[in-house]
């Protein structure tokens, strides 16, 4: 008899976006003539830019010819892409990485979920709250998170991120082994300054902790005083692993490509105190469980770093950020408390009069026919907030704002 991994059974069945879809479908069933606009789901809407599409066509043509056909590639990614990453994402910021510290992935979700395999199940973890659910759920699956009690996992340290602390958590007052940070943040759309990030790196170095840093939204940063990478902070090479994704940067949610940085200086300890470099372990892990990202996706990603690619990708980000700007202005003018939306495609909106997240969600759905994401779905500190995304088409977003305006007035 095969015994199931019972840790999976601890995960609640309901998935936030499935719950939302159920409620939206119930509304649509009873209001078949009403069209609903979603400012809910975190997927992009704008097509791939021409430079990327051209690279995809070219790569497909190469695959059609015997002499340029490619089969399995290197598990850690092709050098042409890793070199472009080094040269464009890190060197201009004064960050020197070894090419073997870059692992091309099939999107950041896989690696943010999988990297925790490298460390023992009994490490303690701390997460910013609210949070991208993958970090916790992947720890639940391996048995590290404990049990769910009142919406909190018993072995997870929740570090509240609220308006009061500017959505940057307080440094824990006890030792933690692994810390998950995500900036620019999903869901709050807020950022961390270099000074604040430096405190985290120093905490990790002093306490021998690891930081898993999710930089999936770094391309949305509009001001270069805000760190694009944790390696802009001295010492981070010794304690931080960083995740990048082309999903939100260049509309790759359907193409699938990103990369993970595992510096050679990052180590974890055996029970007897021997320091083991995680770079080599991750390489070993990837060679066993991953056969690389498709050649076509990697050529597509490489095209983002050409002069045309850079320009085109920036134009799409500007398009979304224009949405974010209009949304923030309109909602603030309506008297709402709004955070984020300046260096990220998300707005984090405080519900009026302490209304709970789901109630606000339902009222906005039924009265304005606009979908948002209830903040509490991202963690206990998200209660009393909702998330709106700027990933919509501009015309739809403008229409949604008009509806919200009419509803709130
Ligand atoms: C979208 C997102 C990712 C990236 O997901 P992909 O697997 O690369 O599509 C990673 N982290 C956060 C916080 C995200 O919102």
Account of the 3D structure:
The termini are far apart. Helix 4 crosses helix 5 (134-141). The longest helix is centred in the C-terminal third of the chain and has 27 residues, at 307-333. This protein has helices spanning 16-30, 50-63, 79-90, 108-114, 134-141, 194-207, 247-250, 278-289, 295-303, 307-333, 357-368, 394-408; strands spanning 37-38, 102-105, 125-129, 148-149, 152-153, 156-160, 178-182, 210-214, 240-245, 258-261, 267-269, 275-277, 337-340, 346-350, 370-371, 373-374, 385-389. Strand 7 (178-182), helix 6 (194-207) and strand 8 form a beta-alpha-beta unit. By secondary structure, it is α/β, with parallel strands linked by helices. It contains 12 helices and 17 strands. The strands form 5 sheets. Strands 2-10-9-8-7-3-6 form a 7-stranded mixed sheet, sandwiched between helices. Strands 13-14-17-16 form a 4-stranded antiparallel sheet. Strands 1-15 form a two-stranded parallel sheet. The chain binds pyridoxal-5'-phosphate. Pyridoxal-5'-phosphate (PLP) binds at residues 42, 107-109, 132, 182, 186, 214, 216, 245, 247-248, 253, 258.
What tags apply to this protein structure?
409 residues, alpha/beta, seven-stranded mixed sheet, four-stranded antiparallel sheet, 12 helices, 17 strands, globular, binds pyridoxal-5'-phosphate
């Amino acid at each position: 008899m095969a015994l199931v991994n019972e840790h999976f059974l601890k995960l609640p069945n309901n998935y936030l976006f499935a719950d939302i879809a159920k409620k939206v479908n119930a509304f649509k069933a009873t209001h078949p003539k009403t069209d609903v606009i979603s400012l809910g789901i975190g997927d992009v809407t704008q097509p791939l830019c021409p430079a990327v599409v051209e690279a995809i066509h070219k790569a497909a043509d190469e695959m059609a010819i015997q002499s340029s056909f490619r089969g399995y590639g290197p598990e850690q990614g092709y050098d042409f892409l890793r070199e472009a990453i080094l040269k464009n994402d890190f060197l201009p910021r004064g960050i020197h990485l070894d090419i073997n510290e870059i692992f091309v992935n099939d999107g950041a979700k896989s690696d943010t979920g999988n990297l925790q395999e490298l460390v023992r199940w009994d490490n303690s973890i701390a997460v910013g709250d609210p949070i991208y659910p993958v970090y916790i759920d992947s720890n639940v699956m391996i048995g590290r998170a404990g049990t769910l009690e009142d919406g909190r996992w018993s072995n997870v340290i929740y570090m509240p991120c609220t308006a009061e602390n500017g959505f940057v958590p307080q440094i824990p007052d006890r030792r933690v082994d692994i810390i998950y940070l995500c900036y620019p943040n999903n869901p709050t759309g807020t950022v961390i300054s270099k000074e604040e990030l430096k405190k985290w790196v120093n905490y990790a170095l002093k306490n021998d902790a690891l930081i898993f840093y999710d930089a999936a939204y770094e391309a949305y940063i509009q001001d270069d005083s805000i760190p694009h990478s944790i390696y802009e902070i001295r010492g981070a090479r010794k304690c931080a692993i960083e995740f990048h994704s082309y999903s939100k940067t260049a509309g790759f949610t359907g193409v699938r490509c990103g990369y993970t940085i595992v510096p050679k200086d990052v180590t974890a300890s055996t029970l007897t105190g021997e320091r083991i470099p995680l770079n080599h372990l991750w390489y070993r892990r990837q060679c066993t469980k991953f056969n690389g990202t498709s050649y076509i996706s990697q050529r597509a990603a490489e095209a983002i770093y050409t002069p045309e690619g850079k320009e085109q990708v920036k134009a799409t980000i500007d398009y979304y950020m224009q949405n974010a700007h209009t949304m923030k202005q309109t909602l603030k003018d309506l008297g709402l408390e709004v955070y984020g939306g300046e260096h990220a495609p998300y707005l984090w909106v405080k519900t009026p009069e302490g209304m709970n997240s789901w109630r606000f969600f339902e009222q906005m759905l039924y009265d304005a026919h606009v979908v948002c994401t209830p903040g509490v779905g991202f963690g206990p500190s998200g209660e009393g907030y909702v998330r709106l995304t700027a990933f919509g088409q501009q015309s739809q977003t403008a229409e949604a704002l008009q509806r919200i305006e009419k509803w709130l007035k």
